[in-house]
Amino acid sequence: MRITNHRGAVGARGLGTLPAVLGRHVEALCYPRHARAQPGANARARAYIADHLSTLGYQVRLQGPHHNVVATPLDPTGPLRFVGAHYDSVPQTPGADDNGSGLAVLLELARAAALGGVPVGLIAFNAEEDGLVGSRDFVAELEHRRGPRPAAIHVLEMVGFTAEHQGSGPLPRFLVGDRRGDFLALIANRGSSILARDTLRRARAQPLAPSTSTLQTCGLERWLPDLLRSDHAPFWDAGIPALMWTDTADLRNPHYHQPTDLPHTLDLEFMARVAVLLMEAVAVPVAPTLSVSGLYAATRRGPSG
Questions:
Q1: Residues 237-296: pLDDT tens digits?
Q2: Are strands 121-125 and 68-72 parallel, antiparallel or unpaired?
Q3: DSSP letter string over 148-184?
Q4: Helices 268-281 + 102-116 axis angle, to 10
């Protein structure tokens, strides 16, 4: 197990309207939306995501029996870097952090990529809360489907909560340390270690990036199943580099899977810093100081280039 830390700057200067834009996405998606228990609400979330991505000029399709939302550039060539986040919740929670926060960051990354003309694939997975069945189906289909294949994927799993103290839950204390709960954790297996190192390098070079810790599992994920609880795991199984981005979920957030997982509990500045780092990680031009109206007007004209 290898852990590397970077301490980011504090203060919202330079983030512009990005925190507010992210907050609006979270508000729009904040209701229980379990795939089976609340199929109507689940479909409503799916439509919100698909409509936004389609408006940005992506080719959008629903994949598989679980209706993953997959968006790719209109004319992709070769393997793509993907960003993913699940859109379902457990039945009893509105899911602001889990996983409205990840979806909000994904949607703004999609917008920035469209503005910059950078080819990126997006996946909103369904049924993550039912044993990762949506992402497992997507990965299984890669063997048979022609089309853009992920060269690597960044998976966003709860990226909006900070706290005075970081808990460790069932994990050994040495894995998280005795520190403030205000860092982004990046989880990588052996096959994803280059992705983790590159993202940490970009965090150190970007003043607006959050404090970041990378945890490279070095094969220990087989004995620590908490490291396999999100949609990155099927990609690891398939040998595709995948990096999980997380605020450490229930190791930090007491509202995890509770009715209290609401927008007002989130740290929107932290989320905006995560979004900036994600833009850097997939080589999207960072322009967080654009006004909301300017950002929306620019993307309605379609990708540049």
A1: 999 999 999 999 988 999 999 999 999 999 999 999 999 999 999 988 775 334 433 333
A2: antiparallel
A3: --EEEEEEE------BSS---TTS-GGGT-SS-B--E
A4: 40
Q: Is the dihedral of CA 26, 29, 32, 33 positive or negative?
A: negative
Cβ atoms of residues 125 and 84 within 8 Å: yes
Domain 2-291 has CATH 3.40.630.10: yes
pLDDT tops 70 at residue 305: no
Contact 84, 122 (CB under 8 A): yes
Domain extents in the chain: 2-291
What is the reported pLDDT for 3?
57
Q: Is 3 helix (H, G, I), strand (E, B) or coil?
A: strand
| Amino acid letter for position 207 | P
Query: In this structure, are residues 25 and 107 in contact, taking their beta carbons and an 8 Å threshold?
Result: yes
